[in-house]
Amino acid sequence: MSASRAARLIPSQPIVPGIVWGATYIAARLLLELELAPGVRVAVALAPVLPFVFTLVGLVQGIRSMDELHRRVHLEALVIAFPLTLLLVMTLGLLDLAVGLSPDDWSYRHLLPFLAIFYAFGIWRAWKRYL
């Protein structure tokens, strides 16, 4: 596939691929509650990966098209969100070793909302600084 054709397949805005990723992720979560063959379970688990990659590419393209202030805000949001995520993962890992956290309450699938919250908090803090 040529580079120009590949570029046309990757949307410049992450809204549509984000919706497709969200729907695929929710469908995968629901399907993985069913009794399926191991090969089918792996395929279902991997189904949201490609839509998420398209979403990330759209996000990066969208941020690259922003002016310098908006790019700086998103960079600062990541600078806040990434260490907060590391702190959360480290703390949960150590607590799991200390007291054995229940996987029904604290597994990897429960971390995704925290990542969005940390990023939103980072954007709020960055805009507060620049406004």
Morphology call = flat
Rg: 18 Å
- The average pLDDT is 87
Low-confidence stretches: 1-11
Helix content: over 70%
Approximate strand percentage: under 5%
Span from first to last CA?
45 Å
Q: What's the helix-strand series?
A: HHHHHH
User: Regarding quaternary structure, how should these chains be classified?
Assistant: single chain
* Major beta sheet summary: none
Which class best fits the helix and strand makeup?
Answer: mainly alpha
Number of strands: 0
List the total number of helices.
6
Structural description of this entry:
Helix content is about 75%, strand content about 0%. It has about 130 residues and is mainly α. Helix 2 (about 15-30) packs antiparallel against helix 3, helix 2 packs antiparallel against helix 4 and helix 5 (about 70-100) packs antiparallel against helix 6. About 10% of the residues are buried.
Please render the helix and strand layout as text:
Layout: H1 3-9, H2 15-31, H3 38-46, H4 49-64, H5 68-99, H6 112-130
Helix pairs in contact: 2-3, 2-4, 5-6
Primary descriptors:
single chain; mainly alpha; 0% strand; 131 residues; 76% helix; disordered N terminus; 6 helices
Would you kindly provide a brief summary of this structure?
The chain contains six helices and no strands. The chain has helices at 3-9, 15-31, 38-46, 49-64, 68-99, 112-130. The longest helix has 32 residues, at 68-99.
